[in-house]
Amino acid sequence: MVKKRLIPCLDVRDGRTVKGVQFEGLRDAGDPVALAARYAREGADELVFLDITATNQRRQPLTELVRDVARVLDIPFTVGGGISTVADVEALLLSGADKVSINSAALARPELIHELAQRFGSQCVVVAVDARLVEGQWQIMTRAGTVATGREAVAWCREAASLGAGELLLTSMSHDGTKSGFALDLTQAVSEAVSVPVIASGGAGQPADFTAVFRAGGADAALAASIFHFNETAIPTLKHYLHLAGIPVRL
Amino acid sequence: MEIAVVDYKGGNVQSVLFALERLGVQPTLTADPEALRKADKVLFPGEGEASSAMQALRAAGLDVVLPTLTQPFLGICLGMQLLGQHSEENNTSLLGLLPFTVQRFVPDAAHKVPHMGWNNLQALRGPLFAGVSAADHVYFVHSYYAPVGEYTTAQALHPAPFSAAVQHGNFHGVQFHTEKSGAVGTRILANFLDL
């Protein structure tokens, strides 16, 4: 059977890995190439690389850095941040990315999902969804979480999947960086609404948070940054914990 | 050793090139029939959709060239599927080297489509899997699959068994991404280079 995946996420700005809380207050977490190689060695199932300033400053992701990371990486590699055209995606795939993650551009023009799926295949189109809990409802945010779209999370996820997304990267902004656990209700609602894999993101703190998001949340993969970057939980330890808890993982 | 990677704009080849470089070989990315014929090994990666891939192969004349190659040949992912007879994906005629029909997975609550992620291999046979055991995992991303047949050299479950690898003579195919399957994938790729 297919295993539950653990995915470290490198938020990259100006060539360095950074990490904030609820998308703000960034601190330095090291050299992305060295971190990527370390995670692959430690048994990460995949790596996500997000150029977090790209959308707001309207520049391209760092294709050269993508190439440097891809060269050392023998696990799947997703790149996101500021991608808005077929040409952007082509450049990233040529640099060695295996999948791309699109967010703001897909909200601005949902047909982009379909165009990318047609051109490159659904398997390399990840739609990233940033949701924030506003008055009891999960609302979709855009432009690195700075602008509300008025869209409801489950409905948008369903639309993205039907347009050809091969996977959804679902981040709860309300939980991001807080280490208080994943948004289980949101993850479960989306997992049940779509037939494509769902990566849960935002809020990882304790090993038990991962058990919960795989079991109660129905996630196919869990993404985390802080707990891995700052050596709070090592991937091998976490995988062993999950294995003992009965969660199928690649050991 | 001359290693050729088939260049037909059929998806992401860069990861395959990097994986070969990590094994210390300098692959040539080419669509030139002569270069393909004289290579010691040919790799045929593929991603995306079957009918556009076949169209791209035909446009380059490769639908005629590839089946005539005699050296060890490795189709990866869609590159493996294209070795079959026919695909349900947009009702596409394939290269016809192996007798399978590519079918679509049917999702259920516990088995999503695409089949994406790390799955373990079973019923392994043949030189590609020297040093690889049924406990080992490799990385898959696909919505269509080749059923199990006498050509199958490895199986995986989603939830029923399907062909994770196939072989007919010099033509090998793997449904998973050797280039993205960690140390196990590297071993399989190295085994292919040793054929």
Q: Any overview of this molecule?
A:
- The complex is a heterodimer of chains A (251) and B (195).
- Chain A is an alpha/beta fold.
- Chain A has a single domain (5-244), classed as TIM Barrel (Alpha-Beta Barrel), CATH 3.20.20.
- Helices cover 37% and strands 28% of the residues of chain A.
- In chain A, helix 7 (153-163) packs parallel to helix 8 (184-193).
- With 195 residues, chain B is α/β, with parallel strands linked by helices.
- Chain B has one domain: Class I glutamine amidotransferase (GATase) domain (Rossmann fold, 3-Layer(aba) Sandwich).
- Chain B has a seven-stranded mixed beta sheet.
- The longest helix of chain B has 12 residues, at 182-193.
- Chain A: This is Imidazole glycerol phosphate synthase subunit HisF.
- Chain A: It is found in: Cytoplasm.
- Chain A: It holds the Pfam family His_biosynth.
- Chain A: Keywords: Amino-acid biosynthesis, Cytoplasm, Histidine biosynthesis, Lyase.
Total helical segments of chain A? 11
Radius of gyration of chain A, in angstroms, nearest whole number: 16 Å
Strand content of chain A: 25-35%
CATH homologous superfamily classification of chain B? Class I glutamine amidotransferase (GATase) domain
Output the structural class of chain B.
Answer: alpha/beta
Q: What is the CATH top level name of chain B?
A: Alpha Beta
